[in-house]
Write a structure and sequence with these properties.
The chain is mainly β. The chain contains 1 helix and 7 strands; from the N terminus they run H-E-E-E-E-E-E-E.
Length: 126
């Protein structure tokens, strides 16, 4: 997985963590959210490879499928339908949306969840 994908995943996980209502998980089986739509603004996303280096600001709008989701690894919990790139160095474009947002894991000890790891599926940039 390249650095760009890791940065997007880490940023999305941080935003979702902020949206948790009190960091609770009912009977360790589900996660509850206080908002259905989550927006992410990343100040710098860097793509590197044989094409050189591209640096872009990213805006991402994610809609969760439900306000309560099962804690099952690989479960699709939402969709990132709107992705906007504004490149400061080089050019890039989003090739496909929506991206699936899949639950991976939580970190910390209940009742204080310290992190959530999600995975974005079908990401393609040009």
């Amino acid at each position: 997985m390249n650095i760009a994908k890791k940065l997007v995943i880490a940023a999305l996980a941080a935003v979702i963590l902020l949206a948790l209502t009190g960091g609770t998980a009912a009977a360790l089986r589900s996660l509850s959210w206080s908002k259905r739509e989550i927006s992410l603004l990343a100040r710098e996303l860097t793509f590197t490879g044989g094409f050189g280096r591209v640096i872009c600001d990213v805006a991402l709008n994610t809609t969760l499928n439900q306000l309560r989701n099962a804690k099952r690894e690989g479960a699709v919990i939402g969709r990132a339908a709107y992705v906007f790139l504004r490149c400061r160095e080089g050019t890039a474009a989003v090739l496909n949306t929506p991206w699936n947002v899949k639950y991976k894991s939580i970190g910390g000890t209940l009742p204080r969840i310290s992190s959530i790891t999600d995975q974005l599926e079908r990401i393609q940039f040009l």
